[in-house]
Design a protein that fits this description.
This protein is α+β, with helices and mostly antiparallel strands and about 80 residues long. It has two helices and three strands, in the order βααββ. The chain has one domain. A three-stranded antiparallel beta sheet has the order 1-3-2, covered by helices on one side. A hairpin with a 6-residue loop joins strand 2 and strand 3. The radius of gyration is 12 Å and the shape is globular.
Length: about 80
């Protein structure tokens, strides 16, 4: 299944918290839900839960999620 990379806008404090939760094996639900909603907004159907992959160093800070999507949906 194809992956779709989603960048969620954030602030540095939230990004740090999301990274700490990820390292502890936990999930930051609000940002994960935002990533899932963005997949739907782009016209794709998520095939699995978004997976946190990192944080950008730029300004504004963005949380990066990879989301598996069904290949039979049209972008």
């Amino acid at each position: 299944m194809p992956l779709l990379r989603i960048a969620v806008d954030s602030d540095r404090a939230t990004a740090r918290r999301v990274l700490e939760l990820h390292l502890a094996g936990k999930v930051h639900r609000p940002s994960r839900d935002t990533a899932r909603d963005e997949v739907w907004r782009r016209g794709r159907t998520p095939a699995a839960e978004p997976v946190f992959v990192g944080v950008t160093n730029g300004a504004p800070v963005r949380l990066l999620y990879d989301v598996q999507v069904h290949s039979d949906t049209v972008p």
